[in-house]
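Posting for a labmate who doesn't have an account.
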Amino acid sequence: MSHRQSGRPQEDPCPIDLEQVQGDLEAARRQVESAHAEVQAARAEVERSRAEQETLRAALEQARKEQEAIRADLEEAVKKHEKLEADLEATRQLAAQNWEQFLRARADLDNYRRRMEREVERLVERGRQELLLRFLEVADNFQRALMPQASVDPDGLRRGLELISRQLDNLLRQEGVEPIEAVGAPFDPRLHEAVAVWECDEVDRETVTDEIQKGYLYRGELLRPARVRVGRPPAGR
C-alpha cells in the first residue's frame, strides 16, 4: 500500500548538536596536542637519557683507560720495586765483601805497622850502636892521651888532643851536626845566647866578640845556641 507524501518536512529523528561536536573535536584536538607534547617530551627524555648513557659510557671508558693506566703504573712500580730490592741485596752483598776486605786490609796494615815499628826500632838501635862505636874510638884516643907516658911529652899530648878534637868534629859532621860560626858575626838571637854585653869601640853594631860555649846546627835546624859575649857600640855614637 502506497503512502502519499505530506506537504510538511519530516523531522530528523537524531538531531546533531554541532556545538557538542565542535567541543568534542576541540577536546580531541587538545588531547592529541597533549599526547603529541607528551610524545615530544618522552622523545626529549629518551634523547637526554641516550646522551646521559653516552656520557656515562664515555666516563666508563675513560675510567677503564685510567684503570688500565693505573694497573700499568702499578706493574711498573712493582718491577721497579723488585729491581730496587735486587739492587739493595747486591749492595748489601758488596758492602759485606767490602767490609770483609776492609777488616783484612786493616789487619794487614796493623801487622805491617808492627813490622815497620820493629824494623825502625832495629834500625835506630843499629844506628845508635854504630854511633856509639865511633864515639868509642874517640874515647879510646882520649884514654891513650891520658896514659902516663903521654904526660912526659907535652907536644905529643897536644897533638893527640887536637887529633881527638878533629876526629870528634868529623864524627859530628857525619851525623849532620855543624858548628855555628859565632865570633865576629852580627849578633843573631836565633843562633846566639848573650851571656854578657859590653861596650866596644871596634864595632858599629851588636857583634859577637867572644864564644863561651859553641853552638851547633843539626841538618840546618838549631840544635844548641852558641853562648856568647856581645859587643855593642858606645852610647851616643
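Reply:
Got it, the C-alpha cells are right above this. The longest strand covers residues 192-199.
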